[in-house]
Amino acid sequence: MGMRLIAHVAAASVPETQAVLVAEATLPVVEVLRPATQSLQPPNPGRATLCQVEVINVTGMECEDEDSTCAICQCLPVNPVMLRSCSHAMCEDCTSAFVAHSMTENESPCCPICRVEMAL
Asked: What residues does each domain of the chain span?
């Protein structure tokens, strides 16, 4: 099953009653959705899970200066954690989502600021 695309050109040299057919194509419908079970499982069971990334809990007082924004959401970090590998601080939820996304892309999670691989 496909979708038909038809393009017509009406130029000044061609009377309006004579539309010129430029292209006609039948495009295949492509299935781009994956089964729901694939998105719920890490692509490589040997990769780190979220709980294996080494972070240090940071108090809110340590993140109140103007330079302490979460590198992911650009806000003052909520429940901030600091990456043990590079000492950059981010929101706990942002870090969790970032690591989960890296894992679904089959990549090792890296700090979004300095790109140092997160300590596992």
From this structure: 36-104
